[in-house]
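Final report, Chapter 2: Outcomes

The project's central promise was a pipeline that accepts a single protein chain and returns its three-dimensional structure in a standardized token representation, suitable for archiving and comparison. That pipeline is now operational. To close this chapter, we reproduce one record exactly as it appears in the project archive, with the input sequence first and the structure output second.
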Amino acid sequence: MAKSASVYARIDPVLKEQAESILSALGIPTSNAIDMFFKQIVLKKGLPFEVRLPYEKPVCMGELTEEELNAELEKGYADLLAGRTKPIEQTIAEMRKDFKI
């Protein structure tokens, strides 16, 4: 199929330069990389990678004031009452996957 459609996007020039440098080292023209990305979107019926918010910084219990500690404990208790918990096995599996341990 002939390529005749165009995509125009405004992106950070530094990001563009970094990406093009890597693609050049791989011998892949930018237009081919974009075409590959679009093909993966179609194949996966969505983005070809996980999109999520970054993790919140873990709470360091030893650095909390008594008031902050009580607030964290209250949040945990509220989660427990609302059923916002998961089995420890699931939590450990997720941590191993996310942190590659």
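Archive annotation: The mean pLDDT is 91.
This record, like all others produced under the grant, will remain available to the consortium after the project formally closes.
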